Amino acid sequence: ETGVTQTPRHLVMGMTNKKSLKCEQHLGHNAMYWYKQSAKKPLELMFVYNFKEQTENNSVPSRFSPECPNSSHLFLHLHTLQPEDSALYLCASSLSSGSSYNEQFFGPGTRLTVL
Amino acid sequence: AQSVAQPEDQVNVAEGNPLTVKCTYSVSGNPYLFWYVQYPNRGLQFLLKYITGDNLVKGSYGFEAEFNKSQTSFHLKKPSALVSDSALYFCAVRDIGGQGNNNDMRFGAGTRLTVKP
Questions:
Q1: Strand A87-94 relative to strand B73-78: parallel, antiparallel, unpaired?
Q2: Per-residue pLDDT of chain A (115 residues; tens, 9 = 90+)
Q3: Which of A62, B63, B67, B86 could be B55's S-S partner, Cβ–Cβ 3.0 to 4.6 Å?
Q4: Measured between alpha carbons, how far is A64 from B58 in angstroms, rounded to an integer?
Q5: Cis peptide before A8, with omega less than 30 degrees from 0?
Q6: Using a CB-CB distance cutoff of 8 angstroms, which residues of chain B are in contact with residue A48?
Q7: DSSP A1-54
């Protein structure tokens, strides 16, 4: 798990709070991803960054705001969330997302609860 | 767009018996197929992938998967299950050369494998 780290591991927030999730990868990868994992549902790809540039935004509500300051760090800024946003948020990284055969390496996730 | 189906929410096997976790896919181009495992309180961990070549792919921890183009399947198998194999397993697919983005990886909903002693 030291390859991709995520903080915090658990987060409880009210609907009016602002918080941020952090992801860091130590694998020398160039692409980073945010996924949402809800019980008994497929993983939902939220955002993709390739060489610090956002290449995908899968119709994610604006209350989720990603930031990628460099190829090793990825943030997900949260504000005015809804209870249905409660889920496990997973960060992943890979070699360039332009090479479709590369597998992704995942962090342990942040368990988010919105009250 | 590509899609993945894992028809079983839960698979139960006895330790020492062979296990199979099923996955079927739908693509408009050619598939790149992946299996991941998720242990409790952990992120997804890569097991194996099929890109091209031999239809039987061997991966970590004694797992293997067989690509079957005619049945559009990529079932995960292991000849002899261990209690420590108990986890959540995800199949994923990329649609190469088809409609949409080659880099978009779609995951199944997951299958919970329980291996009993």
A1: unpaired
A2: 469 999 999 999 998 889 999 999 999 999 999 999 998 788 899 999 988 888 777 789 999 999 999 999 999 999 999 999 999 999 999 987 666 778 899 999 999 999 9
A3: B67
A4: 38
A5: yes
A6: 103
A7: --SEEEE-SEEEE-TT-EEEEEEEE-S--SEEEEEEE-TTS--EEEEEEETTEE
**B83 — phi, psi (to 5°)?**
-55, -35
- Yes or no, beta carbons of B103 and A41 under 8 Å apart: no
pLDDT tens-digit profile of A78-108? Answer: 999 999 999 999 999 998 766 677 889 999 9
Question: Nearest 5 degrees, angle CA B106-CA B47-CA A92?
Answer: 55
Asked if B59 and B48 touch (Cβ cutoff 8 Å), the reply is yes
Give Cα B98 distance to the centre of its chain: 21
Q: Do A107 and B103 touch (CB under 8 A)?
A: no
Instruction: State how far residue A53 is from chain B, nearest Cα, in angstroms.
Output: 15
Query: So what's the pLDDT on residue A97?
Result: 62
Residues in A whose CB is inside 8 Å of some CB of B read 1, 4, 6, 40-43, 45, 48, 55-56, 90-92, 97-98, 100-101, 103-109
Answer whether A32's CB lies under 8 Å from A23's CB.
Answer: yes
